[in-house]
Amino acid sequence: MTFIDIHAHLEFFDDLNIRIKKAKKRNVKIILANGIDVxxxxxxxxxxKEYPEVQACLGIYPVNALKLIKKEINSEIKFIKENKDKIIxxxxxxxxxxxxxxxxxxxxxxxxxxxxxxxxxxDKPIFIHSRKAxxxxxxxxxxxxxxxxxxxxxNGKLNLVEKGIHRGWFFSIPASVKFNEQFQEMIKIIxxxxxxxETDAPFLHPDKKFPNEPANVIESYNKIAEIKGIPIADVEKxxxxxxxxxxxxxxxxxxxxxxx
Length: 260
Description:
By secondary structure, the chain is α/β, with parallel strands linked by helices.
């Protein structure tokens, strides 16, 4: 079997080589590393070059984006365009009202629009962060003409989840689903054709420890299998199909087969 960690932050690990080897031993053969600022975007590219299992995603975390002036954000978008052939998605981007005040919301929305426009231009999926701004994020995304959306660790009300389902968005379920009832309820209503699994490593450990790591993504697969009442092998197969569909459908030089 091949397990996929659709969202992790590998720059936090001083022992990344060990973590990658541990993931491989548990058949976690694909890990999507998400950048959160200028520095980590470059680290993500380096990780993807060093480890065949790692796929690069470049973006600016919403709170970090607020620290940049317009010229700096545009410069990083230019950098992402220049490296479009080295990345598989845009992310992590979005809105955040936990770390930033509501007075920043207009600015955050304008920045998110830039990144959605970039994803559309490059025809790449985009990882959306929406902590404490789930309603605002969904409402904004509904106005934009792009549906290659992955709602990362979405914690909004189920009626908002249903809106995403209706539009064909994907939802990534973190390993903390082992104890988190919100994510368990989401699994019940989201078709498996719109699910991915993630760790958000080093955060959201399934046993409330630190650090979390890509090897633990199997906990998400286990919980989906339990709630959906299907074998874990079927969950693995469906999520692999989702990955192929969303990330590789128009790719001619890249194949999931090299990871198998």
